[in-house]
Amino acid sequence: MITRMSPVALVAASLFLTGCGGGAVAATDHTSDPAPAPAVSSSPSPSSAISAEAAPRQLPGVGPKMLARIPAGTEQVVLVTGRAANSPLATLALYERTDDGWQQTVSWAAHNALRGWSDHHMAGDLRSPIGVYSLTDAGGLLKDPGTKLSYDQGWGFVSPGTGFEGEPLAGSFDYVIAINYNRRPGTSPLDWTRPLGSSRGGGIWIHVDHGGPTHGCVSIAEDHMKELLRTLDPARHPVVVMGDAAALGH
Questions:
Q1: How far is residue 207's CA from residue 158's CA, in Å, rounded to a whole number?
Q2: For residue range 175-193, what is the model confidence (pLDDT) as tens digits?
Q3: Of 87, 163, 180, 201, which residue is most buried, by most CB within 10 angstroms?
Q4: If you average pLDDT over residues 150-169, what whole number do you get?
C-alpha cells in the first residue's frame, strides 16, 4: 500500500468539475495532440485476449469483442452491467480468475450516469463510458481503509450540493477508485491530465453511492466501497468492464 497526500487541496467547486465525469480543462490540455492509446487497448493482439479454453467459465453477459479487450494478465474484473442503454441503474460484481475460469465473489446494486451509457463519452453528456479500463489508483476524504492500490487522502475529495433527485452529495467522495478512462494511471484521482483532450471528459470514478444517478461515474454503498478497496490487488492487474447489458454482449 502506497499513501500519497494531495499536492494541492482543491476547493469543492473544482472537484465537482473534476470528479464523476467532469469536463474541467486539464492541467495539460492535449486536445490538439494525437490521441494516445487508452490504458487498455480496444484492439489487442490475439495473445492478450482471454480465450474460452483458458477460462471455460466466462464472465456472464460479456461477449467475445469485450472479452478480447481484457488483458491476459488480468485476474480481477469489476463487471458493471447497466440495466439499459439509457438507464442509471446497474449491478456491480467482482470476479476472480481461477484455474476453472471466472468466479463471482460479490454482487451489489449500483448507479451509473443519469442518461445511461455511451461508447464515445464526451464531457457533460451525463453518460458513463462503455469499455474496459484498468484500475490502479484510489483516494478519498477519509483515511485509507486498507487497500493495496495507491491511495491519496486529502481535503480535495469533497462533493458539494445535491444530486439529480435532490439527494445530498456529501460523502460521495469519502472513498473513490479512479477508472482509467482519459486519465494518467499512477497519479491521484484528482489529477486533471486528460490524454484524449478535455472535450472527452474525465474524472470517471467508482465512488460512494448518494442515492441517485451520477454525472458519469459508478457508485456503490460505502461498506461495499471499502470492501472493494480492500479486495483489489494491483498484482492481479484489475480492470473494470462496464456498459449496458446489450453493449457488453457484443
A1: 12
A2: 999 999 999 999 999 999 9
A3: 201
A4: 96
In sequence order, the 6+-apart residues with CB closer than 8 A to the CB of 44 are 68, 69, 71
HEC string for 87-116 = CCEEEEEEEEEECCEEEEEEEEEEECECCC
Of the pLDDT bands very low, low, confident and very high (cuts 50, 70, 90), residue 1 is very low
Q: In this structure, what DSSP letter does residue 229 have?
A: H
Average pLDDT, the chain: 84
Cell numbers representing residue 72 in the block:
491476459
Burial class for 137, CB neighbours closer than 10 Å (0-12, 13-18, 19+): buried
Per-residue confidence (pLDDT) for residue 58, from 0 to 100 = 87
Sign of CA dihedral 195, 21, 38, 236: positive
Angle at 236 between CA 250 and CA 49, to 5 degrees: 30
Which residues, 6 or more positions from 12, have their beta carbon under 8 angstroms from its beta carbon? 158, 159, 160
Nearest Cα residue to 50 out of 68, 63, 77: 68
How far apart CA 245 and CA 201 sit, in angstroms, is 23
pLDDT of residue 15: 40
pLDDT in tens, 44-72: 333 333 333 444 478 999 999 999 999 99
- Report d(CA 128, CA 115) in Å as an integer: 8
